[in-house]
Specification:
47% helix; single chain; 2 domains; 20 helices; Rossmann fold; alpha/beta; 7-stranded mixed sheet
């Protein structure tokens, strides 16, 4: 596949490749293949033992082999990825919602570390990135840049985080502890909704030859990682649920678009399970749904543009969720009062209540979108919805206190907990959901022209190529070639 849009499988520069081999070889760093991240049980006993003996939160090379969905939250592996099965007692809809938990990923507690690894490794193994002399620049609304900084630190290269100044305080505290220098955290104006300002900062940084911009919104390896790694993990989650309920079918995969990496899992899930694909955005900034704009606080889902790596013409629905709901449910799930209320009044098991308390804002958004889609489609008890919890609540403690003061005057009691559940879960309706036919797919696809062709300089022919599913089929076929490149790279470093 052509590297014009950020993914290439052919070696560009043998000298750069050799320097990368020497750099990682001297550090004893081996690179996992996509196949190994999709099925970590494939690792040899020796390597698996080394990984198990490593602190999951350390910037250690062994943790590259933990960049997958099967972590148990300590040092071991699960047979089925950690997940929640949310039922009608909580959601108010009969359709079960299966939620894979991204907080089990190492170092950053979010699955974006997979995207970061996937975006850098093709450059390493094809002679496009010299870790000795180049700086990896990671534009993000919070989690991808943390993943990029973690991967950069493991590989012994400089990582630069670019993110809006309005993101949660916890994100910046994490970055301050991990970057090489304070200047490696670049704050851009605005908040979650200000992606264009991130692009502008990256354009300035790109003028320095030492900087390599790994823009997750246009890096096709981001899509490919979720197609190759996240989708099989979700298939495993569905198979586990279907084993207990034989009539269960996969009705839809639901994902906030963000950079549109995660929603790439839907392409494979549609192929393997026959489900539809629902793209989610913030109601306060309904770009796909209403060609709108605005400001929202569902941190981690971006907005105001359609990412280049979103396979729009394979999407089936658009769902918009309000940050008023995600904010208030965050308080319900996090507060002691809310957790007790959910256990007592809704009969939720302790482990479910505990898992709900770990969900970050974008994770809650995905759950709400599943509920809205279930109501819109009239789904029943045999119709499962699949989604992911992008990150955990650890990044949102400061946001929790803001919402508690702003929306509840600092007080949250049983009556308030019941009112929040009634309005924002039981009362969720099917409004602001759109089924995509050919005309609507073309409309949403065309919105990307203004960002990518007019603003970012992507060639019109490259932009249009993505309208054809043959483009995406060719992209998916490249995962095997990349795994061969990774294998050959490891053989040269001797680290395996």
């Amino acid at each position: 596949m052509s590297g014009a849009l950020g993914l290439a499988t052919e070696v560009l520069d043998e000298a750069v490749l050799q320097r990368a081999v020497e750099h990682l070889g001297a550090r004893g760093i081996a690179l996992p293949t996509f196949a190994e991240l999709a099925r970590p049980a494939l690792l040899s006993e020796t390597l698996a033992a080394r990984v198990a003996a490593t602190d999951p939160q350390a910037p250690a090379a062994e943790n590259l082999f933990r960049v997958h969905w099967y972590n148990d939250g300590a040092s071991g592996l699960l047979e089925t990825p950690a997940h929640l099965v949310l039922t009608e007692e909580l959601t108010g809809v009969a359709a079960p919602i299966l939620v894979a938990l991204g907080e089990r990923f190492p170092m950053i507690g979010a699955h974006k570390v997979l995207a970061a690894y996937a975006c850098l490794v093709p450059r390493l193994v094809t002679g496009r990135f010299d870790p000795r002399t180049r700086r990896a620049v990671w534009p993000s609304t919070g989690n991808y840049c943390r993943g990029g900084v973690a991967i950069s630190r493991i590989l012994g290269c400089r990582g630069v985080a670019v993110l809006p100044e309005g993101m949660s305080a916890e994100r910046f505290a994490w970055l301050d502890a991990w970057v090489e220098e304070p200047s490696d955290v670049v704050r851009t104006p605005g908040s979650e909704s200000n992606v264009k300002e991130i692009y502008d900062a990256c354009a300035r940084l790109a003028r320095e030859p030492a900087n390599e911009i790994l823009n997750q919104f246009s890096e096709f390896a981001n899509h490919l990682a979720h197609y190759a790694v996240t989708a099989p993990a979700l298939e495993s989650v569905f198979e586990a649920a279907a084993a207990e309920r034989p009539r269960l079918r996969a009705a839809a995969f639901v994902s906030a678009t963000g950079s549109a990496g995660t929603i790439g899992a839907g392409d494979r899930l549609k192929e393997q399970l026959g489900c539809s694909i629902a793209a989610v955005e913030a109601l306060e900034c309904p770009t796909m749904l209403y060609n709108g704009y605005g400001e929202h606080n569902i941190q981690g889902i971006g907005d105001k543009h359609v990412p280049l790596i979103h396979n729009v013409t394979n999407s089936d629905h658009v769902v918009a969720v309000s940050d008023r709901s995600t904010d208030r449910l965050h308080v319900l799930f996090q507060s002691e009062v809310g957790r007790r209320w959910l256990a007592r009044e809704r009969g939720l098991a302790d482990e479910v209540v505990e898992a709900l308390s770990s969900l970050g804002l974008s994770s809650i958004c995905n759950v709400l979108a599943c509920i809205k889609l279930a109501r819109h489609l009239g789904l029943g008890a045999d119709d499962a919805l699949l989604t992911v919890a992008t990150d955990g609540a650890a990044m949102y403690g400061s946001e929790l206190s803001k919402v508690l003061e702003r929306d509840f005057d600092g007080s949250f009691d049983d009556e308030t907990a019941g009112a929040v559940w009634k309005e924002h879960l039981a009362g969720v309706d099917g409004d602001h959901v759109l089924d995509l036919g050919p005309r609507e797919r073309d409309r949403v696809f065309n919105l990307g022209y203004f960002t990518w062709v007019e603003q970012q300089g992507v060639g019109l022919e490259d932009f249009e190529a993505r309208r054809d599913q043959g483009f995406w089929d060719g992209l998916h076929a490249s995962v095997g070639v990349l795994d061969e490149r990774i294998g050959a790279f490891n053989a040269e470093t001797g680290a395996r």
